[in-house]
């Protein structure tokens, strides 16, 4: 996160992750998801990746796909609540970097990737494509700081459902500070249209633990409302209500058959990719793997 360039930051995470996969027991992931495989005698040496060799002291061959395997839209919450951060990294900075990392990784896979950013409305929308300059355009969109106010998932998700007519994968990154019924309804509408949805909930560790000690004025970053709170008196109720809301979100995702991952801003970013790949493998929908058609038309 100390790297200023968002593109370089994403590249460091992805390349380190791919190298780590080759050194880990998860050999299936490296075959299915990276553009690399280990060199074997008889392989064309023209496709050796010398940068990876310099970093890992092992030979890897670049693997090329003949066509795009996946259509993916990364949907990023840029509302004002995402600007909160109790440490050096805000939720917005972490989520933007996670989105850039996923975009970079999927672009290496030659998948069609697009980006949607929203506040209380959709701000920017770039349809999924695999073409020169697409990643650069997404990174430029991600550089913008959050300026919205309320976290309103209803309007943006309705607009998304109406716009994305072709089935694909949707990766939602948000703190999900919204009513459970609203989330269930809007995410359900995406599922009903045939989309696969992965939900990444991005939170600051302080939102989970409420570590504050001294009485102070607390300000709602979305509404601007200020309230004097004694943390000692409010902590138990806060934790209880927050846990109840969090459990409701996970239950709604489970009921809808969505993959859910909790990301905290103190977690290493390669965990985002690991959770993504592990969830896709568990669902049997790996990029690059063609599913046989069945009674549901291949669903």
Automatic annotation (TrEMBL):
Under the heading Pfam families, the entry gives: DUF58
Residue span(s) of domain DUF58:
35-246
User: Domain of life of the organism in this record?
Assistant: Bacteria
Q: Fetch the InterPro entries from UniProt.
A: DUF58 (IPR002881), vWFA_dom_sf (IPR036465)
Record-given protein name: DUF58 domain-containing protein
Species annotation: Tautonia sociabilis
């Amino acid at each position: 996160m100390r790297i200023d360039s968002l593109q370089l930051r994403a590249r460091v995470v992805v390349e380190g992750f791919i190298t780590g996969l080759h050194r880990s027991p998860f050999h299936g992931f490296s075959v299915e998801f990276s553009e690399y495989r280990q060199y074997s005698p008889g392989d064309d040496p023209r496709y050796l990746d010398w940068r990876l060799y310099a970093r890992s002291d092992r030979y890897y061959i670049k693997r090329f796909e003949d066509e795009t395997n996946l259509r993916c839209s990364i949907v990023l919450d840029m509302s004002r609540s995402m600007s909160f951060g109790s440490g050096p990294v805000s939720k917005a900075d972490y989520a933007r970097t996670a989105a850039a990392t996923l975009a970079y990784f999927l672009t290496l896979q030659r998948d069609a990737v697009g980006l949607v950013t929203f506040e209380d409305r959709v701000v920017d929308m770039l349809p999924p494509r695999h073409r020169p300059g697409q990643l650069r355009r997404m990174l430029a969109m991600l550089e913008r700081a959050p300026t919205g106010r309320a976290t309103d998932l209803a309007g943006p998700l309705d607009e998304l459902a109406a716009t994305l007519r072709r089935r694909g994968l949707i990766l939602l990154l948000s703190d999900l500070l919204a009513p459970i019924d609203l989330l269930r309804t809007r995410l359900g509408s995406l599922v009903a249209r045939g989309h696969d949805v992965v939900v990444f909930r991005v939170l600051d560790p302080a939102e989970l633990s409420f570590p504050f000690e001294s009485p102070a004025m607390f300000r709602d970053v979305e509404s601007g409302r200020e309230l004097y709170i004694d943390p000692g008196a409010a902590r138990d109720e806060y934790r209880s209500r927050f846990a109840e809301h969090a459990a409701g979100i996970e239950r709604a995702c489970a009921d809808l058959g969505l993959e859910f991952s909790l990301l905290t801003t103190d977690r290493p970013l390669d965990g985002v990719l690991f959770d993504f790949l592990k969830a896709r493998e568990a669902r049997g929908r790996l990029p690059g793997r063609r599913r046989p058609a069945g009674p549901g038309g291949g669903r």
